[in-house]
Design a protein that fits this description.
Elements (H helix, E strand, L loop, with lengths): L4 E7 L3 H12 L6 E7 L6 H11 L3 E5 L3
Parallel strand pairs: 1-2, 2-3
Length: about 70
């Protein structure tokens, strides 16, 4: 029996790494997972990238701290 996997990711100004991280997760053969990402007030394009992936895949949930 397979169990759903929850992946937690914290981000802060990680735009240089996010594409590789997300593409790696999306390429896995195991597909029963959710990715919960919490951004800690990034000032680069991190949140834009997170939202781009979340729009493409409903298993990705993005939360943004306000302060």
């Amino acid at each position: 029996m397979n169990a759903k996997i929850s992946i937690a990711m914290a981000t802060y100004n990680g735009e240089m790494y996010l594409h590789d991280q997300f593409d790696s997760i999306l390429a896995q053969s195991f597909t029963d997972w959710e990715l919960v990402v919490c951004d800690d007030c990034s000032t680069d394009k991190t949140v834009e990238i997170l939202n781009e992936y979340a729009q493409k895949d409903s298993r990705i949930k993005v939360y943004k701290n306000e302060q």
